[in-house]
Structure formats: structure tokens, C-alpha cells
Amino acid sequence: MNDILQLKGPFESRKNPNRPAAPTLPSNQSVCSNHIRKLGQDLLDIAAFWRAENFLPDVLLSAHYRKVAAKSNRIDSFLSYKDVTAEQTIVGAKYGGTPSDPYHIITHYVSIDAIVSSVEKANETAKILDEYFTGVATTSSFNSAERISLIDFSRYSISKTTFQRMVVDASFITKFAIDKSEFLTNETAIISFFDVKMKIDDLLRKFGINPTVIRALDNTSVLLGREEIELILRKAPYLVAMATVDFSRLLPTDFAPSSESTPGVIPSPKNEPIIGVIDTLFDSSVYFSDWVEHHNDISSEIPAQSSDYQHGTSVCSLLVDGPSLNPELNDGCGRFRVRHFGIALHAGFSSFTIINQIKTIISKNTEIHVWNISLGSDQEVNRNFISAEASVLDQIQYENDITFIISGTNKRADEPKKRIGAPADSVNAIVVNSVDSQNNPVNYSRSGPVLSFFTKPDVSYYGGDSHKRIRVCDHLGLSYVCGTSYAAPWISRKMAFLVDVLGFPREIAKALLIDAAIGWNETHSFEERSLKGHGVVPVRIDDIVKSEDDEIKFVVSGVSEQYETYSYQFAVPKYKNEYPFLTKATLCYFPRCSRNQGVDYTNTELDLYFGRIDEDNHIKSINNNKQCIEDNDIHPVYEADARKYYRKWDNIKHITDEIKERLIPRKAYQGKLWGMKVVTKERLKSRDGIGIRFGVVVTLKEIHGVNRIQDFISECSLRGWLVNRINVESRIQVYNKASEEIKFD
Questions:
Q1: Domains of the chain (ranges plus CATH)?
Q2: Cα angle value 67/68/69 (rounded, 5°)
């Protein structure tokens, strides 16, 4: 097998070279003056409602779009006023319609002055349409510069640009409305309000709720009981953005005690990497207890039961000594030390409490890079927003150099299909479901995706099934178990090995796991993907960090500083002046996320291009991605297609050649190499993508079965790349040497 290669060299960066063009109507669109007047009337009715309600100083309203809207298609002139753009007033987003035909509903919080201004602009726009377009602007008439030049804008109170923007805005939206929450619960829940620029204490007082007895998660989210929730939904249901049931129970797992004896003997730990665990309690009487530093964070006033030690101890046994307990799953990663935090009980636990505990635990243990969480909610995640638990984990991962590995949550075998539960909807985390020994989804697995878009689970692994269970050591001895809780620790082991032993950045480590799970045949149906994610991660670590003799696998990492981050210096070997390779690439990054943006959750988009450089110095990306090419106006990529085919706004991108029956080498352009470009786009114009790190794994498979890795190393070295072979055995030796304690006389 070939070693994986790590390429180090400078990426160049540049600002967006494209200048904003004049607003235009999309193909085959038309906008009539009556529609624009109706939108203005919608705003007047909404303003009248809020004046009568006298509950908030400003106006909360929603714009209903015709379809899922690209960022560039969001309203731009409607609701903008002076220096405050419409985009800056967004406080939420969700989907309307059906899963097969969704559309955006975007919520804004704007001033009365913005409403008055928008109505005036709407009336003037409608007047111009009546006088110069006989009441209807079509694509051909509106996009005609000659036709626009005939309008005498000195007769109106709006400029040419404002007129054009108002018409384009109106082409994308159907109405403005006030939307009410339909959340119902008989339980305590974490309620999140729209951000109406008020302190949470002041907002609660408006409902007659004493804020001193209420626990707040942040300035928009609080923990409320059933009576308080009913009061709020009765008085102001339009203020509630989202809600998550607070109380969670340990998900059903299958334990079968064994009469077999435990391994009993294990060497003492040295300086092995540490994996963090957040779970139920740990029993220190087990044979591997020297490998676990355990902390009981349950109040001493709550008596612990025997069952409270079962789950957490079992998870730790796999992290420490999984290959000894399950030789057929020996991953070659060795043993790991564990720092365990017992914060949950078997009978149930408060999500709100756990969120705050996790924040504290992570802040005090920053040296740990991989954390295993095999806890989850029995409740299904909402289709329109991320859970409070997951959003906190995503924020922690954005701010810290850590990765959470989370079990995909379980259902009972006799339950119908069920969506995953919090916090398995964390976008930045690696979420793990279970498969059986034949790589088929098991009957207790719950399904994704998240927000109707993000692939969750991310990957699958072996968590046991009725025919072949996973062997663990719990508080009573050996047991045979089934559950996603026992699939996740195996991925935690691999992630910790990649990061702590081999020294990969977490972005590359995550990309390596995803890429290995996908392999070369990404042919999953939607149903299979919703249960297995990107695929099943190989058992052996060698199958992740090495490649076949006819493959060249290399990794690169970089930092997004401007709109484009790129290198045109990848020297892929040629044969008979052609490139005899199939190609695939996987990109991963950890973006800042905004829960209050609803379905538009990730703030930053990194778009990946990799392929040959053609005669016009453009990258011919292997997936034919044309989102950022110059003729995009001639051949536009619509938002629905960009999300479906290019995973726009996803923080995992996988691009690959289509493997056909007859493999044909690629044409080589004269004097040209291969290039990679990462394009950064912001959803909120908050520069969240500046300084964000990304990792890319690329695999080249020689179609004639020839090993060309040495040619690749030589040619890339000549182009200025520092090429390192990642030899697992030597990296382990380096890690062990670096971890030795030196005693001075």
C-alpha cells in the first residue's frame, strides 16, 4: 500500500473579482404593479396590527418566498431603511410548503420607519410599472437597458436602482405576513424567542413572568415550565421562534450480561492520548479503571442507582480497550486514556443543565481534542431549527480546536421510522449510526437529514445487532450490547489517533474519515443515506491513512482569508500526454452557525473546485461545478440545484468522477497543471469565514493500475510543495518519543 502524502505550500488568496451588476429579473419571470401594491398593503396591515398590539417597539414580520431562495435572491430594497439593510434585520428562517416542494419563510424585525419607507417605494414602483410597462414588467422588457433609459426618474421619489431592486424583490416573494408558533407541549421546554433587541428579563416581565426565578441559556432562550409556555403562546405566539423539550431519557440500548470473565490484565497507562467522555457515571472497580480519570458531576443530594453506572462504564471500556474486547474490530489504534465526566443518570436528565455543564467542562479541559457523547433525546429534532443542545456544541467546536463524536440516537425496534434526536443534529460534530456485520442499517437506527438538508448521521460503524453484539465491560462485568452508543466510541478512537498520534488538523482528520466511508462508489439512495450517512468507516486505521498501490492520496490544509483561496501548482503525472486517473476529493471545515437563522444555519459557505487548468486558466472541476465561473449569468446555477448537486452551505463537500464502464484518460492542456480553489461566501456579511481553516483529501486512482506516486512526489516537489509521507509506524514512534517524561538529575 502507498503512504498518504501531506502537501505543504502557500495558497494564494484574492478578493471577489466580480462587480455587482444591475438588478435583473430571472428568465421567464414577470412582475405586475398590482402584486407590488399588494405587498405594500401587507406591510400596512402588519404595521396596524403591531400598533394595536403595542407589545414591541418595532415590527416582527415574515417574507414568504416562492421557492428556496439563494442569498442573492433575498429581498434587498423592501425593509431596508437608511443604513440598515433588510439582511441585517433577519431574525429567523424556516421552510414552508412540503418536503418535496419547499419554500423559504424569512422573519425580520424592522422599524416602523422601514415599513413606511417600503410602502412608499412600493407605490412609486407600481406607478412606474403602470406608466412605462403597461402594468407588467417581463424579463425581456425589464432587463433591457434601453427600456430602462426611457424612464424619467426625476418625476418620482425613488432612484433607478431602487426601482430595479423593488421589482426584483417582488419577483421572489408572494406575501408579507405575521407567523405564529404552533409548538405544543405538556413538558418543561427550552423556549427561544426571536431576537427583538430586548433583554430577556424585560421581555419576560411583559408576560408577567418573574425573570429572577427563570434560568436563561442566553439572551433569547430560557427554560420554562408548562404554565409559562401556555401563557406566552396565548399572549404572543408570534414571538416564539423555536422550542425544545428539556427532559431527556437515556435512549434504549440492549444489554445482555455475560458469565464470561473480563480480560483482567491490562498494562498501566503511560502517555497515551486522552479522549473526553460526557455520559452517565463510571464504576471505578472495573479492570481498566487506571486508564480512566473520572469525575462525578451529579449533585451529592441525588442518590445514584446501580443502573447509573452501566452506560458510561461500557462506553469507556470501548475507548480504552475495545480491540481486546472485540478482536474482530481491532483498528490498530492501540489504547486510549479517558477523562470521564458523569453528568447524566439512567432515569433521565435535563438538557438545559447538561448544556451549561458541557460549556464548563470544555473550558477547563482544552487540551483534549476529541470528545465522545453517547447521550441523546428521545424526541425527534425539528425540521426547521437546530436543537439548543446541538447549537451549543456547534458553537464550542467553532471556537475551540475540538471535535464531538456523537451517537446517532436509538429507537425501539418496534417503533416506526424516527428522526434522530438532539444533540445528534450538531452540524460540526461527527454523528455516528450503527450497521450490522453486513454493513446494513440496523433496526434501532434513527434517520436524518437535519433541516431537510444536512447529512446526518455523518458515518456509520458497528454498534451491534441481534446476530452479533458488541462486547463491553460494565459495572457488573462483561455484557453484549447493541446501540449507536457503542458505534460512536470506535470513531472517537480513530479521530483521536488521527489528531493526537498522527498530528493531522481536525479538518483533515474528519475529511479522512468521511472520504474513507464514501470510498469510490457513492451510490446511496436517499433512504440509505438518511440511515448510514456518507457510509461505513473501515475497521483498520491503515485503510484510512494508506491507499492502494494504484492510488495517490494526499491532503492539504489552508485558511480562508479572502473570497478565493487557491493554488494552480498541483503536478498530476501524465502518461502519453494524458491524465490516466479517476479523481475524488473531500473538504471539511467547522463554520460558525446561527441558530436564530433557522434553516439557514451555517454562516459560511466554502465551495470546492479541483481539476485541470484549461486554456483560459479556469479550473475544470471534476464535478463540473460552475457556480463561480464568469458565464454564470448565461448558464445560471439555481439555489435548489446548487444545494442538491454541489452541497451549497454544507460544511462537508465530496466531489468525484462518475465511474463509467469504459475508463478514458483526461486530456492534458498544453503547459497547464491542476488547480484547487476554495471560494468563501458569507450569509450574514459578518466576516465569519475569515480565518476559518479547511482540510481537503484528494485521491487519484490510476486507471491502468500503475503506481505513479513517486512521479507525483517528484513533480510536486519541483513546483514548490513540501511533500511528507505519513508513515503510521514512524509517526507512532515519534509520538511515543515526544511523550516520554525526561527526568533531570
A1: 30-177 (no CATH), 189-245 (no CATH), 254-537 (3.40.50.200), 548-732 (no CATH)
A2: 100
